[in-house]
């Protein structure tokens, strides 16, 4: 019988995993560990591998080890595949797949929630209420239909974000090298500088790669309106965290919401209330009432979890049977 191993499995994924295993007649074993050099040996004896994490899977030795175990693939049950060195994977005959679209709405709806918290100053209000200050001072807000939403990267998730804000009556502009005709009624494409100058909410939905690392930096933050909000529910390193802290402290922008932050690996998704963690920038941002932090939960809805499990496992079987998955990234 074909035997697959899934790493970093959460209890909420088990129902979908058991159902897939039963329906496909394939043994699927699970563990709660991240995949890396110290846990890679667990994959020995398995036919296929599914992982999900936000930290790197390790250096060249890890890829060589998987090859020596006779494995032919690494399937990620997430979208971003920056944790895998694709050159190393290819060099060791490992096909890498991701789940490019498990539910773009899941992230888009979190962006809506973050935007509304920022726009209505709910963070500021909560802090004040905790000390008995129920005054209205500084809480006057704008209405979302009067605002311009600027989307950097209007792909699957950015398009879903655009449709939500357009439905609320906002003007939506987007910067993306790819112009999608199906979005003609939803948004207007602009240059990046124009977007930064005009948007009341700037929300980033690009992949993390060489062109987008620190795309939001001192220069781009300075180009935003001082009344504007920044949202990053894509990948942490797209925003230069120190520049963001500087921009918030100096009032260069009005607030920010982050579902992903530099150095989040090993922190987001983990209970660190007892052991603590080492990310001073996160502490600084957590203490700011005009900053909303969520621990990389954009993807985390029931529909999305089920799709991630099923699509990743289907991809493993496609590759093991000699087929080509539409989700191959190398
Ligand atoms: P996608 O590939 O469908 O869309 C990305 C878009 O960005 C594309 O249209 C591309 O042309 C555009 N783009 C690329 N480089 C650009 C640049 N320099 N400037 C402007 N546009 C650029 O990707 P997606 O599925 O929509 O995912 C978007 C991001 O969301 C990724 O970073 C992904 O890792 C992240 N993500 C986060 C969560 C979460 O839980 N917060 C969940 C899923 C995905």
TrEMBL record:
Q: Which CDD domains match?
A: LDH
GO function terms (MF aspect): D-lactate dehydrogenase (NAD+) activity; NAD binding; transaminase activity
Gene3D superfamilies linked to this entry: NAD(P)-binding Rossmann-like Domain
Q: Which UniProt keywords apply?
A: Aminotransferase, NAD, Oxidoreductase, Transferase
Could you list the residue ranges forming a coiled coil in this record?
A: none
Domain called D-isomer specific 2-hydroxyacid dehydrogenase NAD-binding: residue spans: 113-298
The D-isomer specific 2-hydroxyacid dehydrogenase catalytic domain extends over 6-330
Q: Which protein family is named in the record?
A: Belongs to the D-isomer specific 2-hydroxyacid dehydrogenase family.
Protein name according to UniProt? Bifunctional amino acid aminotransferase/2-hydroxyacid dehydrogenase
Source organism of the structure: Bifidobacterium xylocopae
């Amino acid at each position: 019988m074909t035997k697959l191993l899934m790493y970093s499995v959460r209890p909420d994924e088990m129902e979908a995993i058991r159902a897939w295993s039963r329906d496909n007649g394939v043994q699927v074993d699970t563990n709660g560990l991240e995949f890396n050099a110290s846990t890679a040996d667990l994959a020995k004896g398995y036919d296929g591998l599914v992982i999900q994490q936000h930290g790197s899977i390790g250096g060249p030795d890890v890829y060589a080890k998987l090859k020596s175990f006779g494995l032919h693939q690494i399937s990620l049950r997430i979208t971003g595949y920056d944790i895998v060195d694709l050159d190393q994977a290819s060099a060791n005959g490992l096909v890498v797949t991701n789940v490019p679209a498990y539910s773009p709405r899941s992230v888009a709806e979190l962006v809506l929630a973050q935007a509304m918290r920022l726009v209505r100053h709910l963070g500021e209000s909560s802090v004040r209420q905790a000390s008995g200050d129920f005054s209205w001072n500084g809480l006057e807000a704008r209405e979302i239909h009067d605002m311009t939403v600027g989307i950097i990267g209007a792909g699957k998730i950015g398009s879903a974000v655009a449709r939500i804000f357009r439905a609320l009556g906002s003007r939506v502009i987007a910067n993306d090298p790819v112009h999608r005709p199906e979005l003609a009624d939803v948004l207007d494409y602009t240059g990046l500088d124009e977007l930064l100058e005009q948007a009341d909410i700037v929300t980033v939905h690009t992949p993390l790669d060489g062109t987008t690392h620190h795309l939001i930096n001192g220069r781009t933050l300075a180009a935003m309106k001082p009344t504007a909000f920044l949202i990053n529910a894509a990948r942490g390193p797209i925003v230069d965290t120190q520049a963001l802290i500087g921009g918030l402290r100096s009032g260069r922008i009005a607030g920010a919401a982050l579902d992903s932050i530099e150095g989040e690996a090993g922190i987001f998704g983990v209970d660190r209330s007892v052991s603590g963690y080492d990310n001073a920038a996160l502490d600084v941002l957590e203490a700011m009432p005009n900053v909303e932090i969520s621990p990389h939960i954009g993807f985390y809805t029931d529909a999305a979890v089920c799709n991630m499990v099923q699509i990743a496992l289907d991809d493993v079987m496609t590759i093991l049977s000699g087929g080509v998955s539409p989700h191959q990234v190398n």
